[in-house]
Design a protein that fits this description.
The chain has 307 residues and is of the alpha+beta class. It has five helices and 20 strands. Strand 13 and strand 14 (216-220) form a beta hairpin.
Length: 307
């Protein structure tokens, strides 16, 4: 008997992701991977998988899925509003960050994220996904990854392996970081900007605009004055780099960022604050706090301890 979910509604941006596809940036292929690493790993922990097992990532509104096959253990992580609809049509509100069972004919309707952007759906035993260069992450712009490198579409079938840990439901409680201060280190070209602009960047509020996706996040706020050159020779870029193009408005590069870039970089978001950043919705006002490498390393160790 085949075990699969039928996609009745794909959601806004539903893709398979894992921790990333590394070692290929010199070929123009970014690591990609899940946006919120903590929630991704937590979803796998709830169903007994290794933390790197591929999961379904969704943004804002997730998919409506119908189970065809054996009973399975699944979990949804994040701040998510979803319903479980059994085969008799009875509707029960789902509980995030808790594993639960679904049976043949049941539907799961992921309605929306709540004051956040990303959520994750994992299944015990994992989805049947083909690895490409050691990863099942989907990079839609390059058409690399499962599902022909594309987002979910209506009528797709998502096949999965047999669940391993039925009746072993778990719940994980943790506090979501609601703070809007994002810590960042100095960028390579910070001295391209006037002292006043450097001070403004680390003291003024910037608003997240709707021009935000898995590739980058455009901000709106105090214009930053470049005194040297608004372009540089293209160089390698990392996730969390904050570029300042000619209009003086920051762009934060996210998981699907280009592998090289030619705009000066004023700062770089520290790894420990990346998950918090990507969950901020358009219209949110954030502030940047300048920290040094010692603080960034200490914060990363604290971040890892959460796992």
């Amino acid at each position: 008997m085949s075990n699969y979910f039928k996609v009745l509604r794909p959601g806004i941006n539903s893709t398979f992701q894992d921790l990333g596809r590394f070692g290929l940036q010199h070929l123009g292929i970014v690591a990609s991977g899940c946006m919120d690493q903590f929630l991704f790993c937590t979803s796998n922990k709830l169903v007994g998988n290794k933390v790197s097992e591929g999961a379904l990532e969704f943004a804002y509104q997730g998919p409506l899925l119908e189970l065809a096959g054996e009973t399975v253990l699944v979990a949804i992580t994040g701040k998510v509003n979803f319903n479980i609809i059994n085969k008799n049509g009875e509707i029960k509100q789902g509980l995030s960050n808790t594993s639960f069972e679904l049976s043949n004919g049941d539907k799961i309707d992921i309605l929306s994220t709540i004051n956040s952007v990303y959520g994750y759906f994992s299944i015990s035993g994992g989805f049947k996904l083909k690895e490409i260069k050691g990863s099942v992450s989907t990079l839609v712009r390059a058409k690399i990854g499962p599902n022909s490198g594309d987002k979910l579409k209506s009528e797709d079938k998502i096949f999965f392996n047999k669940s391993k840990f039925l009746d072993k439901t778990k719940k994980i409680h943790f506090d979501f970081d609601e703070d809007n201060t994002i810590r960042a280190m100095k960028g390579l070209q910070i001295d391209y900007f006037s002292k006043k602009s450097q001070e403004d960047f680390f003291s003024k509020e910037y608003e997240i605009t709707r021009l935000t996706d898995r590739m980058g996040m455009r901000l709106k706020g105090k214009e930053l004055k470049n005194l040297v050159n608004k372009n540089i020779k293209s160089e390698g870029i990392t996730k969390g780099s904050i570029q300042i193009p000619g209009d003086g408005q920051p762009i934060i590069l996210l998981s699907d960022h280009p592998t090289i870039g030619g705009y000066p970089k004023i700062a770089n978001v520290i790894s420990a604050d990346y998950d918090k950043l990507v969950q901020k919705t358009p219209g949110t006002k954030i502030k940047f706090k300048l920290v040094d490498l010692t603080v960034a390393e200490s914060a990363f160790l604290e971040y890892v301890r959460k796992f």
